[in-house]
Amino acid sequence: MSQTQRTAYARDVRRFLNGHYFDSDRDRRIRAFLHHLIEDNAEALTGTRDVAILTGPNVMGKSTLLYQVAYAVHRQHVGEGADTAVMARRTVTRTIGTREHQVHPTHTPVLLLSLEAATTVTKFNELVVEVLDYEKSVAKKVTALDLLLQHGVRLLIIDDLHQLILTEKLGRYALDHLKAVVTAVGEYGVTVIFAGANLSHHKVMDDPQVTGRAYELTVAPYAADTGQDAVAWQRFLKECGSLIAPHLPMASPGMLHNQLPGLILEGTHGRMQAVVNLVRRATVAAIEDGTWCVTEDHVRAVPAAKLTRDEYTGAARPAPAPEPLHPTVSVSHRERGGVG
């Protein structure tokens, strides 16, 4: 391949990797738990329902994981196997101006809300009506609960819960309002998932009405402190390697998870966003320079994000040497593909 051809092919691979969800055993376990929770809440008798709280440090892939859950639940309710009776368009009478009108709320089985900074009761209600494509003024005429039920919401995801400032009165009012909404929709079998950064240390976790019926799920960075941690880390790299191997015909078995796990861990500190970014950039670089396999030079050439440098390694301390990891994940066969 000429340099021009490699550059064009690298662009195609980069586009593919940019749009690909890097799955993992960790994410699959969390998704399975959430799907079981959603089913249990939908099938349980009347009463309050359990909620889930997804938390962890910043840029660990929490929101990306929740989008996968949201997509799956949405497809379940509107896909080919969906119940047409449930999907039937609802007719609601609303007063617009001085007249009553029959309107048909759009079927919205999943609603994902990202709280704004210093969220208040008014801001939350306006967020609900805006996401459902209404004018803000509707928030003064219809309650958030009525809108959620009229649109057939079955899963409500409230992200960025850490934006609530509970040291202020309006923030405490907003939390009380959220708890009331969660309790009310739970009576109809709706599941609520809260998500946010570092919620374990947030005052919202001190409220027994929140934690009393909540499951806390923590998304932590990958590490190699124990043998179990090392295996989980290398299994994730193995899965990443299987994804990029068809595009790198010179890649050897275990290219990432057996040859480079310590170096990748040093440069990313196990943060999902940093790992995915490194794998993408290193793969593209390996195609562009014609080596067709990811090497130490490719890994070292990817700059670390500022959060990685400052929060995890400390700006005043030199980065630690990569911890040697012995191959613990075997590859039964080599998958070849891509271009030569």
What keyword list fits this structure?
340 residues, alpha/beta, Rossmann fold, two-stranded antiparallel ribbon, 45% helix, P-loop_NTPase, AAA+ ATPase domain-containing protein
Based on DSSP secondary structure assignment, what is the total number of beta strands?
Answer: 7
CATH architecture of the largest domain: 3-Layer(aba) Sandwich
Helix/strand order, N-terminal first: HHEHHEEEHHEHEHEHHHHH
Q: CATH homologous superfamily of the largest domain?
A: P-loop containing nucleotide triphosphate hydrolases
Detail the poorly predicted runs: 326-340
CATH topology of the largest domain: Rossmann fold
What is the strand arrangement across the widest sheet? 4-5-6-1-7
Instruction: Just give the CATH class of the largest domain.
Output: Alpha Beta
Tell me roughly what share of residues is in helical segments.
40-55%
Average predicted local confidence, pLDDT: 84
* Main sheet properties: 5 strands, parallel
Number of discrete domains: 2
* Cα-to-Cα separation, first versus last residue: 7 Å
What does the overall shape look like?
elongated
Tally of individual helices: 13
Tell me the strand percentage band.
Answer: 5-15%
CA radius of gyration is 24 Å
What class, by secondary structure content? alpha/beta
Concise overview:
With 340 residues, the chain is an alpha/beta fold. It has 13 helices and seven strands. The termini are close together.
